[in-house]
Amino acid sequence: MGVVSTNLKPICQAMVRNLQSAKSSEETLGAVKVDAELVSDQGSISKIKTFTVVSDEPETSGGKNAGPSPLGYFISSIGFCQNLTFARQAALLGLDFDALETTVIGRWERKGQFGIDDAEPSFREITVEMKVISKQPIERVAEVTRLTRIRCPLHTTLAKATKVTDRLLINGQDVAI
Fold first, then answer.
1. C-alpha span between 78 and 100 (Å, rounded)
2. What pLDDT score does 70 carry?
3. Are 42 and 69 in contact (CB under 8 A)?
4. Beta partners for 173?
5. H-helix or E-strand containing 16?
6. How confident is the model at residue 3 (pLDDT cuts 50, 70, 90)?
7. Residue 160 CA to chain centroid, in angstroms?
8. What angle do CA 159, 52, 12 make, to 5 degrees?
9. How far is the C-alpha of 17 from the C-alpha of 151, rounded, in Å?
C-alpha cells in the first residue's frame, strides 16, 4: 500500500465498533470547537485543539497576507476531509492505492460581501476532483470514491447547500462516479 499506514484499518475498525456500541445518539455526535480572534484589520488567529492558525486577506483586500484567507481554509477543509474519508474507506475495504490528490475549487459571488445588486455572498458551485493512482480495478476505486462522497461530513453538508460537482481520475483516466 502506498500512502496509507497499515495501522489505519484496525483504528477505523475500532472506531466503527465504538460507534456501533454507543448507547445513545449523544455518544455518536462529533463536535469541533474553534476560538477565532480578530487581531488586525483583516487578520485573525484561531485556536483549534492545541494548534494556532493564522488567517488573513491579501494586501489587495486590506489584509497583510499573513496567512491563507478564511475561504482558503474552508475550501482546503473539503479536500482534507475527502482525503481522510477516502483513506478510511480504502482501509476498511482493503483497497490499496499509491497516491491521492484532491483539488477543490469554490466559486462564490463576491458582490454579496458589499451588498451590491442584492447578491448573496454564497458559493454557487464547488468542484471536487479526486485523482487516485492505484493498481486496483477501476470499479473498486470508484466505489470507495462513491462511499467517500456520501460519508464525508463536509461533502454531505455542502451538497445540501450548494451545487457540488465531483470528478474522479484514476491513473489519469476520467471515471464516472
1. 14
2. 95
3. no
4. 170
5. helix 8-20
6. low
7. 15
8. 50
9. 17
- Tell me how far apart the alpha carbons of residues 26 and 65 are, in angstroms, rounded to a whole number: 40
- Measured CA to CA in angstroms, residue 51 lies from 40, 153, 157 at distances of 19, 22, 25
The Cα 149–Cα 85 span in angstroms is: 9
Q: Cell 483504528 identifies what position?
A: 11
Strands 123-133, 163-170: pairing kind: parallel
pLDDT band at residue 7 using 50, 70 and 90 as cut-offs: confident
CA distance linking residue 145 with residue 104, whole number of Å: 15
- All three cell numbers of 112, joined, read 454579496
Domain ranges of the chain: 8-21+31-175
Show Cβ contacts of residue 128 under 8 Å, excluding neighbours closer than 6 positions.
78, 79, 82, 102, 103, 104, 155, 164, 165, 166, 167
CATH entry 3.30.300.20 includes domain 8-21+31-175: yes
pLDDT at 168 over 60: yes
